[in-house]
Amino acid sequence: MSIQPLLQDLQALAVDYQAQGYFPSLSLAVFNSQDMLFRFTLGEAREDSLFDIASLSKIFTATIVLRLIDEGRFDLDTPLLALNETARQDSVLCEGLRGITIYQLLTHTSTLPAWYPIYTQPDFYAALREAILLERVDGMMYSDLNFMLLGQIVQDVYPTVAGESLLARALCKPLFIKGAHDVMDESLRARAIPSGYGNPEEEAVCAKMGLHFDRFRSHTPISGEVHDGNAHHAFYQQYAGHAGIFSDVESLVTLCRYYLTTDSELLKSAQREQTQGRGLGFAVGEMYPKGCGHTGFTGTSLYLSRELDIGCVILSNRCFYKDLNYKPTKPFRKEAHQLVADYAQAFTNLDA
Question: Burial level of 34, CB count in 10 A (0-12/13-18/19+)?
């Protein structure tokens, strides 16, 4: 079965959404467990362009954590406080985080608030003391704080080594991922696609919360530095956990292919629903036909299906519009993922 019709359909779909103002630039790849089936770019993007992948960083963090569990360092049911001495020694945090497990952080069922501007407080733990006093909801609540806390655990396991980033040591070298970076130098910044114009959403939310911060970036192009305010201001040159990674499309394909081919029962289970539309790090649901994936605020997404042996990575810069009037890319992602899944299903049926 020829891959050409799928390539043509996805290119036409992407060009249409680009023309409607959903994103200026894009890099897209479709792959299976063995091969890169095709990839293409639009706008300023090139094959080796680096995009700020925003919350796709959570999948890197989740993968590091799951591999540590497979190594026997701790378990899904291990309490957070058993792995975080700073929080354990703080009476307020100890009480507020009591009972939260690694499983709950990975599945966003910790009851922690969805977001908090860490940079408005002296440090992460001072901000966490304020955040745990906000309204907390039982059940699934997608929260950056969950993965910031997982990031703290990862930092404790992989202390700083001069000249080598945490991401490289913990994941990229073992998995042979060559184009994902948590620290950007000048040569890497030159390959970065601009992600937006300041952080107007965060400014608005801080104002609504009555929190002051006088170092917001001006509404000028952000290029080669992290778009997410917390990753940029509060975790500068540190591993944030929830955001902060730049990647080319091939590196995300390599990460996804790791999940498509793994023999680890834990990593397989990560791709299945654990609770309320969440796997272990991954999201599941209608946007990810017969599989799982994740999205990023800047206009990025990944989708993979072990059942169909297919995947799709989409990198775009949806926030890079000077008038700050940008659109959610969920409709494009959903249509693209469905086209990919339909192709794989048809191929499977022919092969049966």
Answer: exposed
- pLDDT at position 1, please? 65
Radius of gyration of the chain (CA): 20
- In the sheet with 246-247, reading across from the earlier edge strand, the strands are 51-52, 246-247, 180-181
- Protein fold of 1-52+248-273+280-316+327-352: Beta-Lactamase (3.30.450)
Give the pLDDT confidence of 116-139 residue by residue, as tens digits. 999 999 999 999 999 999 999 899
E strand map for 142-270: 180-181, 196-197, 221-222, 246-247
Name which of 25, 29, 28 is nearest 43 in CA terms.
Answer: 25
* Per-residue pLDDT reduced to its tens digit, 321-350: 999 999 999 999 999 999 999 999 987 766
Contact indicator for 338, 330 with CB cutoff of 8 Å: no
Contact 245, 291 (CB under 8 A): no
Across the strands, what pairs with 52?
A: 246
The pLDDT, as a whole number, for residue 159 is 82
Domain ranges of the chain: 1-52+248-273+280-316+327-352, 56-179+191-245
Q: Which amino acid is at 111?
A: T
Mean pLDDT, residues 78-97: 97
pLDDT at 352 exceeding the cut of 60: no
